[in-house]
Hints:
Blueprint: E1 4-14, E2 20-31, E3 36-40, H1 47-55, E4 62-67, E5 70-71, H2 77-87, E6 88-91, H3 103-111, H4 119-128, H5 144-156, E7 162-166, H6 174-190, E8 194-199, H7 202-206, E9 210-213, H8 214-217
Amino acid sequence: xxxxxxxxxKVTARNPGGANATxxxxxxxxLDPGQQVCLAGRSGSGKTTLLNAIAGIRRxxxxxxxxxxxxxxxxxxxxxxxxxxxxIGYVFQTFHLLGGYSALENVLLGMLFGPGPDRAFGEQLLVxxxxxxxxxxxxxxxxxxxxxxxxxxxxxxxxxxxxxxxEPTGSLDPGSALEALGLMRxxxxxHGAGLLVVSHDQAVIADFEHKLDLAELNRASTIPGxxx
Length: 228
């Protein structure tokens, strides 16, 4: 069974003239359990839209998005949210850490939507990612690279089957970017999670054995307003 299987996915949005236009049309995409894939694409090509459709954050207009054999389109909103919390980790481009909480608390908060807080596992993840001495630091006390590691720990907190990462190195300098990417890939291997990274960074793309080009997958030709 595929970890991720997309069939006939179509997402539309209103263009500046008020008419609906297709911004994402992906006939098929598969990801095997534990597989790591980089999806390349220029800015505005629909990469974030695709990740949000996979995560069930944005509902597709047509098609199937199956994660671990479950079709998210067939779930109600609450069931979809619960399934995402238990099966999909998401590293957002801007990390979305809560500034009033420590690194550990940000990870534990992510667990509230899954099986529940597991302080020992949260600490373990942060230690594995080199933040053992930063457990109680708030985001503003951390470097951008350290914030990204907290975001990765939060994405892994509920032991997901699939981790999605949206331009995860976009805020880092080239040297830090490859180091952070290596940590992310190793952490996913260690915890048995598949990984789908979207990026336009050629160094990131080159690091992956398995890579796809969104321009070749996406049959949509109109992206109103520069959809991400």
